[in-house]
Design a protein that fits this description.
- 42% of the residues lie in helices and 22% in strands.
- By secondary structure, the protein is α+β, with helices and mostly antiparallel strands.
- It has four helices and four strands.
- The protein has a two-stranded parallel sheet with strand order 1-2.
- The chain is elongated, with a radius of gyration of 15 Å.
- A hairpin with a 4-residue loop joins β3 and β4.
- The C terminus is likely disordered.
Length: 83
């Protein structure tokens, strides 16, 4: 199994490393395709920030709602996988 990683800017690097190490023990391999979901979604949402000269990042909740998903727990690992 070769997995592409989709992350959020809020990702805790220490928790990420623990999760990867755990999954590696069971043969899960990760490729080098890593996408920051909030970076990708910011342009789709389209709220331009004149001061910073880029699109404003939105929350994971905003992203889910934009696509028609309502989750009470979008910021825990189970909820985030459903979005």
């Amino acid at each position: 199994m070769n997995i592409t990683v989709i992350v959020s800017k809020a990702l805790n690097k220490e928790n990420w490393k623990k999760g990867v190490n755990y999954l590696n023990k069971y043969g899960v391999k990760f490729n080098t395709n890593i996408y920051d979901l909030m970076y990708e979604f910011a342009e789709i949402y389209g709220q331009w920030n004149e001061y910073y000269g880029n699109y404003t990042w939105k929350s994971l909740d905003d992203c889910c709602l934009y696509y028609g998903y309502y989750l009470d727990n979008a910021h825990n690992s189970l909820g985030a996988t459903c979005c």
